[in-house]
Amino acid sequence: NGPFAVINADHFYGRAAFETLSGYLAHAVDKGGSYDYCMVGYVLENTITAHGHVSRAVAAKTSLPVISNILLSTDRGQLKLAATNLEIGITCCLDCAADEEGSVTVPARLLTDCSGNLPNEAVKLELDRRTLALQVRAGRSKATVRGIDAEDFPAIPSVEGKPTALMAPDLLREAIGQVAFAAAVDESRPVLAGVQLRFAGDK
């Protein structure tokens, strides 16, 4: 149920994507129905950590508003948070109590600000399916954020079969840091702005 990142191996990724992945690894290591409403309850401390994980994949500047959002969805007792900038996707799952399955995307910055200002109590989310307004409540604090339909959120590829390679997050972060700085900043020649990954045996 911990956070995980997905990189499409068929895509060529530049320096920015690997720096995003490196930052995510550092953060991770160091730290439905026919009803109009959907209710979810979970622990505030856990979701602030989850926001920190997935927000690293949120697109900062984009002409596609939905990828500036975080996807919130419930599935069999878990609240899933996901974000992608179309180069890297990060997903994190939290245990929760949901009375109905539902999903919506909300602006990452607003969601993080709302969570940061809530008291450290149990959090309740209430989604109005008709207006896509998400109400966030904890104790006497309450905030409402207008979302975008989850149907518009890009699908994050799932990992199937055995992984190509397994390595410790801190080791991968260190390896990225040793080479990413040498990649070209100018992306007019993408091959020079990327970081090459090559797997051979146990290396």
Write structural notes for this entry.
By secondary structure, the chain is of the alpha+beta class. It is 23% helix and 28% strand. The strands form 2 sheets. A 5-stranded antiparallel sheet has the order 1-5-4-3-7. A 5-stranded antiparallel sheet has the order 6-2-8-9-10.
Spell out the blueprint of helices and strands.
Blueprint: E1 4-6, H1 15-30, E2 37-43, H2 44-54, E3 69-75, E4 78-84, E5 89-95, E6 97-98, E7 103-107, H3 108-116, E8 122-128, E9 133-138, E10 141-146, H4 169-179
Antiparallel strand pairs: 1-5, 2-6, 2-8, 3-4, 3-7, 4-5, 8-9, 9-10
Helix pairs in contact: 1-4, 2-3
What letter string, H or E per element, gives the SSE order?
Answer: EHEHEEEEEHEEEH
Structural class: alpha+beta
Radius of gyration: 18 Å
Portion in beta strands: 25-35%
Number of strands: 10
